[in-house]
Design brief:
mainly alpha; transmembrane helix
């Protein structure tokens, strides 16, 4: 029981790190916060594997460490440092205070939904499951509430982390091939979006998606 309490408590760090990613004004700092969050997910996979007896989750933790903690932040750092200032303030729509309030409301709503779930694998992990779902919607919230292109890339990363943890809780014995597919998709998606973001900045000298209103063929 104490192990489940630890997992539920540790998952709360995901919301804190997600807000740090969203509210940071520097792209490099957001990449560091994302790496820290991904490391928390790696630790959660290890403890979930120990509690469920799932050897697959140990492999998941190894793959997630290579891709989420090392590779994806490295791609972000390599691409985003090419920008003149690496600022994430342009195109911002949602103030910091409203972002924090929105995150709290999302967590509350997700916990209300999860409280009715009766799956055996999630019986003792409903707080962690609620946070994983909230984390997905928090990433979506970041994409919708921010016009900054790089913020939207980070929003996608947050969505992917949330769905990843949800899958680990609900299907701890899923084969490693599933994890490889998720990790590969995340790496290539982030690489493509980072390249597009830097090219857009080089063309328009702006990261505000709201300014991309003209298509030229």
């Amino acid at each position: 029981m104490h192990e489940f309490l630890f997992i539920n408590g540790l998952s709360g760090l995901l919301i804190i790190t997600a807000l740090m990613v969203i509210l940071s004004k520097k792209a490099i700092n957001s990449a560091i916060y994302y790496a820290a969050q991904s490391f928390v997910i790696v630790v959660l996979f290890i403890f979930l594997g120990a509690q469920t007896g799932s050897g697959e989750l140990y492999l998941w933790s190894f793959t997630a460490f290579i891709t989420k903690v090392l590779l994806v932040p490295f791609i972000m750092y390599t691409m985003f440092r090419r920008l003149d200032d690496g600022e994430l303030g342009s195109g911002q729509v949602m103030p910091a205070a409203f972002s924090a309030i929105g995150a709290a409301l999302i967590v509350i709503l997700c916990y209300a939904v999860v409280s009715g779930v009766t799956l055996p694998s999630a019986e003792n992990l409903k707080p962690a499951l609620a946070i994983s779902l909230a984390h997905f919607f928090l990433g979506l919230f970041c994409i919708v509430a921010q016009r900054n292109i790089l913020k939207q890339v980070f929003g996608y990363c947050l969505m992917e982390n949330g769905s990843h943890l949800t899958l680990a809780i609900l299907a701890p014995n899923a084969p490693e091939l599933v994890e490889i597919g998720i990790a590969t998709d995340a790496v290539f998606a982030v690489a493509i979006m980072a390249v597009l973001g830097t090219r857009i900045f080089g063309k328009f000298n702006s990261l505000d998606a709201g300014k991309l209103t003209t298509l030229k063929g």
